[in-house]
Amino acid sequence: MSSNRPSTVEKLLTALDCMLVDGFAIQDKTLLEKLLTSLQDADVLLKTIPVTTHCKWFANVLNIYRHQTPVSRNASIHLYAFALKYLAILVKHDDGFVTLIKTGTVQSMINQLDVGSDLKESSIFNAYMSLLQTLNTHKRGLEYVFQEGLWKIILVAIRGLIVPAKYVEIQSSQYIADLIYKSFVYEMAHYCDPLLKELFYNLNLTDNLIANHQGIKEFFAYNIYVKTLILSLEKFIGTKYESNVVQNIINKYSLSDVLVNILRLLNVNSILLKNYMTLHLIFDCFTVWHHSDMEYVLKSIFSHMNKQKDIHSYKKINNLYTQAIIYANISNAQLAANTIFEKELIIGQLIPLNKCTDWLHCSNYENLKYDRSFINESKYILNYCNNYDFIINELAISSILNIVDIVHVLKQVSLDYLINFFSTLTEHFLNSDEWLEPNQDRDSIYYKFLEILSYIFICWSKVIECKSFTEIAIQDPLLVPLVQSHRQFFHRSSHNSTLLQNGLKLISTSLNKISKENIQCTDHLADFSTLCTTLNNLLLDTRPEIRDSCLQCIRSIVNASKYSSGNFLIKLVLEKNMSIAVINTLKHDNDPFVRSKALECLEEMVSVSDIWEISLKDSDLIVSVY
Asked: What stretch of H or E contains 281?
């Protein structure tokens, strides 16, 4: 060895030579991983090592691996796995790859692999995947993978599940997806034809599964193919290659045929619906990869979703409703402009147990009428509560929170629907006498619906914040039915603290958001009077968070009174002595945060001249300040 060679290289070569010594073993395997990590960015150093030195070392590794004994087997496996990962580092640039191809080193290391035995070892499988993933990073490596058909080993691993571990499924699917995507990036999509043909062949090979539909292992393997397909397609979402994918994959290999086969499998075994990726594929087909010949089968697949009785399956489906809306708004111009599609997904989110075919119509969008009875839809949720099934409450809450997450991207027509839906739902419940009956059982509609109602208030507030109100839109003001529906409800101070807080925030949000110039509430003085009385009473509540929320609501009322249509609110504030109640709170409340909120509320009152002149100007508190 040359004496001019850097000491670091000498240490590396010594370490590599030590690995070849018979009986060599290292107790801490993480040291080898640390060595590999340190070499990832050591290109300059590695280039100082002659190619012949590397070739000789790899040849020695292969010789040891081929002549392993039962005693040396474990050590030889770890040596071979390390060598594959080291080779991946050396070929990550095309010049190093070309050099080691010419020497036959790459071919020898890969050809040694036996699918039936070597890949059963997790360390070798991981190392081989590392090598293949590295070859995906440059065009020459990608060409070699396709020319030699190296991807076939991965598909065989999927088909035979030769390594019964989750990482095989994950790494295999991700690798194939990346390989297909890179072929488009490097303008080599035609190289993918054999791979895609094999993948779709396995996806359409369902006759045996249908005949032996109890074989969970076979369905598991099919799930992996579905996952591979969806990961491959999702790589292209939002990229410039979308149209090419439609032509070269979706249409060429008939994705709709795959959906038909999924439907056939669902008819004999619903296990596919428990696979998140299967559901993802279905929704992506209806949003990003929308095509007319898929509509019928999609509609049929959706009809299976109401059969699930597992809370996790329901939640997966409902999560996909919201994801489908996001995809449609981001990735598909046609569906982004289709307000009906989004609204129907919202309906599906809110009524998860209704048959999906009742809310998701896959054809003739423009001919459908969606002015359905909101009361009927509201009764669905009330009926859920009647089922005395915890899954319904949990699912309803999950669905509502899903909507909260996407309110900001919803179209105005969807927001209108949600406002009407929530309004009718709560009116139907709160204006009935059923929930007022004393001594109700904890399993009654009353208690079950209250659990959901708090989350409805949260979502409703978000919707109002995002809604654009116009003069035409509020001819039937939202605020009046809100106050009418909730005035009696809020009067029950025994309600859960969070429930009251969220309800008060809803009233406050509606007062702050809606155009005050257009509020025409003079015919509903009694309703607002009851609300003001309730707020005065809640200022005496023992819970500081309720007093805080109450003050925020009073402040919103005072702010709304500043507008020309808000004179009646000034009269109510004066009539109910609300300013005195706020002053007393500021003076005597034992919570500093509540006193701070009372001060803010009082400042708002002072800014309204009538309230100032009539109620505040001569008060003891104001006089003491001056």
From this structure: helix 276-287
Residue 284 · residue 246 · CB < 8 Å: no
Measured CA to CA, the distance from residue 453 to residue 445 in angstroms comes to 12
Cite the beta strand spans of 360-427 per DSSP E. none
Tokens coding 226: 């579905």
Burial 100-134 (b: 16+ CB within 10 A, else e): bbeeebbeebbebbeeeebbebebbbbbbbbbbbb
> What CATH homologous superfamily does 469-626 map to?
Leucine-rich Repeat Variant (1.25.10.10)
CATH number 3.40.1400 given to 1-148: no
Nearest CA among 595, 562, 552, 555 for reference residue 579: 555
Angle at 142 between CA 138 and CA 145, to 5 degrees: 145
Task: List C-alpha distances in Å: 419 to 129, 244, 464.
Answer: 52, 41, 8
- Which residue in 604, 623, 588 sits closest to 551, CA to CA? 604
Give the separation between CA 562 and CA 567, rounded to whole angstroms: 7
Per-domain residue ranges of the chain: 1-148, 469-626
Q: How confident is the model at residue 525 (pLDDT cuts 50, 70, 90)?
A: confident
Residues listed for the chain: 626
180 within 8 A of 146, measured Cβ to Cβ: no
Q: What is the pLDDT of residues 339-375, one digit of tens each?
A: 776 777 777 677 543 332 232 333 333 333 333 444 3
Helices (H) and strands (E) in the chain, counts: 35, 0
Is the dihedral angle over the CA atoms 497, 500, 506, 311 positive or is it negative?
positive
